[in-house]
Design a protein that fits this description.
Number of strands of chain B: 0
Helix content of chain B: 25-40%
Strand content of chain A: over 45%
Largest sheet of chain B: none
Low-confidence stretches of chain A: 9-17
Largest interface: A-B, 98 and 42 residues
Mean pLDDT of chain B: 73
Number of helices of chain B: 2
Radius of gyration of chain B: 20 Å
Shape of chain A: globular
Order of helices and strands of chain A: HEEEHEEEEEEEEEEEEEEE
Number of helices of chain A: 2
Largest sheet of chain A: 16 strands, antiparallel, barrel
Number of domains of chain A: 1
Strand order of the largest sheet of chain A: 1-2-3-4-5-6-7-8-9-12-13-14-15-16-17-18
Mean pLDDT of chain A: 93
Low-confidence stretches of chain B: 66-74
CATH class of chain A: Mainly Beta
Oligomer: heterodimer
Helix content of chain A: under 10%
CATH topology of chain A: Porin
Shape of chain B: elongated
């Protein structure tokens, strides 16, 4: 499918008489990012390399290579398993074609880890109106995943996923931008983690409870809508605000609010600071402790399905080197960003070794997230 | 039906007006909008990563990041 789509784009680019472009292709660039996440007993590091190159005036290709090196001793792992390490590698290819005021995009990605494979493709259309002051976009994506279970070679389950996305970016004034996005995602297949268990009260157990493998519904449909705005201020800076509302048929409802401020400290230095608040209700089949084994059809104790909220503080710097370019290089930047995510759970408790039912506290953890990267524009 | 007719007329009038509308921000007034501080996603490789961090740890998903595309990744 990927090859077919890319060939189709190349064919269109070569054969069709193309009008003068009003829409603009993304700039040619290379980004090399190192990322590091540390929190809740989980360490994830790795590179992400993005290369984008145009072919003629109408087509641009992009490739991304992304790795997660994971070392996990999370609360799930220390209570139900043993710490592990694994890698996840994702490769994606995409192409954009500009035709007048319209940009067509296609892409495909593959992700591999030792017990999970994911592949997906997507296409999208972006249309400029009113001299580029309004941009309407539509995207469709389809994914096919395979879930496996280490130690059980016969275990193979499938997931099919589709997403539909509609977006509008609007120039309001010479200093204000607005963005609206809607996205619907549907899943069908084996949606739970094959290793994770729920807890149920068990008088025969010395600790008062026992574990049994989770059971999730076989389908999920979610809707999300976001509204965001950017406003230019003097001296050269901007403020950013975003609100997103989310709901799905597992009865999770979530709100997140993000505020940011970017300030040019000089022609070479940009400073960013931000805050994000996220809160969600729990899934209707989530329970920190079920009354008995097989109490209901669907049972889960994934903390992502628990009601919780988090606060994130972030800041970072961007240094623009070669502001006037050098040879074929038009621009370059060195960037470093730090986020601290503080999560507090409303029902999910910390039952790590050494605790008892009487002493368990609500789970909470802080995470540190680092992004360090350089970008070169051509 | 008669109640809805004026609404259709208004919508048609607005649309026909918009199609011929002059850009309300002239090209020479777009300097601030073109500034890097006015980009929703200044560096896609960075914003894609943060979306991944959020989606891996939260129940919510979708409608984040830049509009368009539609990556179906998990």
């Amino acid at each position: 499918m990927r090859i077919t789509s890319l060939n189709a784009l190349i064919f269109v680019a070569v054969v069709l008489p193309l009008p003068a472009n009003a829409a603009v292709l993304p700039e040619d660039r290379v980004d090399v990012l190192y990322h590091a996440y540390s929190g809740g007993g989980v360490e994830v590091t790795g590179p992400s390399i993005l290369v984008r190159k145009s072919l003629g005036a109408n087509v641009s290709f992009a490739a991304n290579y992304y790795v997660d090196d994971i070392t996990s001793a999370s609360i799930d792992v220390v209570t139900q398993g043993s710490p592990y390490t694994e890698d996840r590698t994702e490769v994606s290819l995409a192409a954009d074609l500009v035709y007048g005021d319209t940009t067509f995009g296609v892409g495909s990605a593959n992700s591999e880890e030792n017990d999970y494979s994911g592949s997906n493709y997507w296409f999208g259309v972006t249309q400029d109106f009113f001299g580029g002051l309004s941009t309407l976009s539509f995207g469709y994506g389809r994914a096919s995943d395979e879930v496996r279970k280490n130690g059980t070679p016969t275990f193979k389950q499938a997931i099919e996923r589709r997403n539909y996305r509609l977006g509008l970016t609007q120039v309001l004034t010479k200093n204000a931008l607005l963005g609206i996005t809607f996205e619907t995602i549907t899943d069908e297949g084996f949606l739970n983690n094959p290793y994770r268990s729920y807890r149920f009260l068990d008088a025969a157990s010395a600790i008062g409870y026992s574990y049994a493998l989770e059971a999730y519904p076989g389908t999920r449909t979610s809707n999300a809508a976001s509204l965001r705005g950017l406003y230019f201020l003097e001296p050269r800076s901007s403020i950013y605000a975003e609100y997103r509302y989310y709901s799905d048929d597992w009865e999770i409802k979530a709100h997140d609010i993000e505020l940011g401020y970017t300030r040019a400290l000089s022609n070479s230095w940009l400073f960013d600071v931000g805050y994000r608040y996220y809160t969600q209700t729990g899934a209707d089949f989530f329970s920190n402790m079920f009354a008995r084994r097989d109490e209901q059809n669907f049972m889960g104790r994934d903390k992502e399905l628990s009601p919780f909220d988090s606060h994130t503080l972030s800041f970072g710097f961007s240094y623009q080197f070669l502001p006037n370019g050098f040879g074929k290089i038009e621009s370059g930047s060195l960037n470093i960003y730090y986020d601290r995510i503080m999560s507090s759970y409303d029902e999910y408790t910390n039952n790590s070794p050494g605790t008892t039912l009487a002493t368990e506290q609500l789970f909470e953890f802080d995470a540190n997230v680092l992004r360090a990267y350089f970008s070169i524009g051509f | 039906m008669t109640m809805y007719l004026p609404i259709y007329v208004i919508i048609a009038a607005v649309l026909s007006g918009c199609m011929g509308a002059e850009p309300w921000v002239k090209p020479y007034e777009r300097g601030n909008l073109a500034d890097p501080v006015m980009q929703f996603d200044r560096d896609p490789v960075s914003s894609m990563y943060m979306n991944h961090v959020h989606e891996a740890r939260e129940g919510a998903r979708g409608a984040s990041g830049s509009a368009g595309g539609g990556c179906g990744c998990n």
